[in-house]
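Retry 2 of 3 after timeout on previous attempt. Resubmitting structure tokens to design endpoint.
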């Protein structure tokens, strides 16, 4: 009886704590007006849930007292971090195909990208909650640690299993760093200026696109394949430390001045546990994470079957375990929506955001764009080196035309959006050009085409794609409050990562069911025994000079696979058009939301 009484008392105490939290977190915020305009109050609503999230309240207080010099210093440090991160991505990305080839698992590129996209995309939602509750510096420090750990493991690995695990850890950290920095910029800018600031932040990619591949070429030629990963494992914590020190030092000064109040202390351990359990909404987090993982993981399993030489994919997809996972994933997503609407004391994602057509449209556009892109992008660098016989450096330059163009166009697009005060119009102009660029790739990206035609299509897609990325990011943030910045950005990022995962899976399915079969078909009978080795290692293919029977067989097989990838990439783009059509034509001028 004593134990029952103790349990009853703790249950009553827990109910009282939850009821108190419900009272301090009012119901879901109303949806914006149909015309997209939402008046901005002169003072913050102290009853809003955003003032119960410590991380949001803290960054608001910091932003209100930062001097212009401190803010500019913060932006310079952010720019330096973006520069090093982009240089790191360009260098290690150019080396990655050779790492897989060293393990004779060139086809694992697609499977690894699916895994990193799933985990990296889903992880943004818990990261959003983490930085809202605990603070931006804590979240950024955790992401730096993960990114560094991944690079260390890549530098030290000597088998493909360790390398794949390291890639997953690295991309969670890398995407998390990029995400927290974008949230930081959103915290400190007005919505109408945000597109321009995002454009400035992406500009380092223009510079590092030329430096990274050249550095990778030098490392590869000097048999220092893993040294590149080690160099960036040292650089990453060094370049991020000044920004962390600035944030922590500014916060300490603000606390000393009484601008930031210390975190409220709970009266008991039980109250502390329940408080953070309710704030993090573990049920909602578990449902949405499990839902997307269960839906997307079968894509990985379907592309990594043991019988890769079979052109039939139906047997893989009809496996009972894959079907069960997809059904359970859909049920988890439905359960998440129901829980957020009626069950959660504190919503993981405010329900008004889940039914906002502009945010959903941005989600669909991101998903469709990145799915289309990754349908053909994963093996593009391999395709250039094998078909057009380009060097690592030149391959990197051509491969990164999309990055260069999209980053260069983002700054003038940001200025245009600031001038127009709207973001839907540029997107409506860009989407037909994006579709045209993808369509032209089908005839122009073939083994018989000239390399200049490939470059022209890349430029056209880059200009349109860069415009759409900026517009979709602004669309995701345009209808929410400061409290929902992190979650809204995470949802758009999740859409992009879902698109990456699906596109990578489609690319992997086409690659594994096309390339080995056609290599064997095009090889002369006396050399068919080389088919497996040529399929598994790009380095082995490059040992044969252009024009040889072995090289030409692989070139023809790559051409068939690339065409199929582009057709699928074109087929999904109507979804992107539908996503843009869902947006409200929101007026940004005079809107200080999230500033």
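Retry 2 succeeded. Sequence:
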């Amino acid at each position: 009886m004593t134990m029952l009484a103790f349990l009853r008392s703790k249950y009553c105490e827990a109910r009282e704590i939850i009821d108190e939290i419900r009272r301090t977190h009012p119901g879901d915020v109303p949806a914006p007006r149909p015309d997209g305009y939402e008046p901005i109050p002169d003072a913050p609503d102290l009853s809003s849930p955003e003032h119960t999230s410590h991380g949001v309240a803290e960054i608001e207080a910091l932003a209100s007292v930062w001097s212009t010099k401190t803010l500019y210093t913060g932006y310079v440090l952010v720019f330096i971090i973006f520069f090093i991160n982009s240089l790191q991505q360009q260098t290690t990305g150019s080396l990655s195909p050779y790492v897989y080839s060293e393990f004779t698992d060139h086809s694992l590129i697609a499977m690894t990208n699916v895994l990193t996209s799933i985990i990296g995309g889903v992880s943004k939602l818990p990261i959003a909650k983490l930085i809202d509750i605990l603070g931006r510096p804590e979240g950024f420090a955790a992401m730096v640690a993960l990114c560094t750990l991944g690079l260390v493991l890549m530098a030290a690995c000597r088998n493909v299993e360790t390398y794949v695990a390291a890639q997953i850890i690295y991309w969670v950290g890398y995407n998390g760093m990029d995400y927290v920095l974008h949230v930081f910029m959103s915290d400190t800018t007005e919505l109408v200026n945000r597109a321009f600031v995002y454009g400035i932040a992406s500009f380092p990619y223009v510079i590092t696109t030329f430096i990274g591949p050249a550095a990778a070429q030098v490392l590869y030629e000097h048999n220092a394949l893993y040294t590149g990963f080690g160099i960036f494992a040292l650089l990453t914590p060094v370049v991020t430390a000044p920004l962390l020190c600035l944030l922590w030092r500014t916060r300490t000064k603000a606390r000393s001045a009484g601008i930031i109040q210390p975190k409220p202390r709970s009266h008991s351990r039980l109250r502390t546990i329940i408080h953070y359990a309710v704030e993090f909404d573990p049920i909602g987090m578990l449902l949405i994470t499990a839902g997307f993982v269960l839906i997307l993981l079968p894509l990985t399993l379907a592309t990594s079957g043991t019988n890769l030489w079979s052109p039939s994919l139906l047997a893989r997809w009809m496996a009972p375990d894959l079907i069960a996972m997809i059904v359970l994933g859909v049920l988890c997503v439905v359960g998440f929506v129901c829980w957020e609407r009626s069950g959660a004391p504190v919503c993981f994602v405010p329900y008004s955001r889940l039914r906002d057509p502009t945010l959903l449209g941005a989600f669909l556009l991101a998903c469709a764009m990145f799915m289309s892109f990754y349908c053909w992008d994963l093996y593009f660098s391999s395709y250039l080196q094998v078909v057009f016989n380009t060097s690592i450096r030149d391959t990197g330059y051509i491969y990164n035309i999309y990055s260069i163009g999209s980053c260069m166009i983002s700054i003038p697009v940001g200025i245009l959006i600031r001038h127009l005060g709207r973001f839907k119009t540029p997107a409506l102009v860009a989407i037909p050009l994006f579709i045209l660029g993808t369509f032209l790739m089908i005839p122009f990206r073939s083994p018989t085409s000239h390399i200049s035609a490939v470059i022209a299509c890349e430029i056209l897609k880059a200009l349109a794609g860069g415009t759409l990325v900026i517009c979709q990011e602004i669309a995701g943030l345009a209808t929410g409050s400061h409290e929902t910045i992190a979650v809204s950005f995470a949802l758009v990022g999740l859409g992009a990562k879902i698109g990456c995962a699906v596109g990578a899976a489609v690319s992997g399915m086409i690659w594994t069911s096309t390339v080995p079969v056609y290599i064997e078909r095009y090889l002369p009978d006396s050399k068919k025994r080389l088919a497996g080795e040529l399929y598994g290692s790009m380095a082995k293919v490059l040992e044969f000079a252009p024009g040889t029977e072995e090289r030409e067989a692989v070139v023809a097989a790559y051409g068939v696979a690339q065409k199929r990838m582009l057709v699928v990439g074109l087929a999904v783009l109507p979804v992107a058009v539908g996503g843009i059509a869902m947006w409200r034509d929101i007026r940004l001028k005079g809107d200080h939301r999230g500033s």
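Attempt log closed. The chain has a mean pLDDT of 77.
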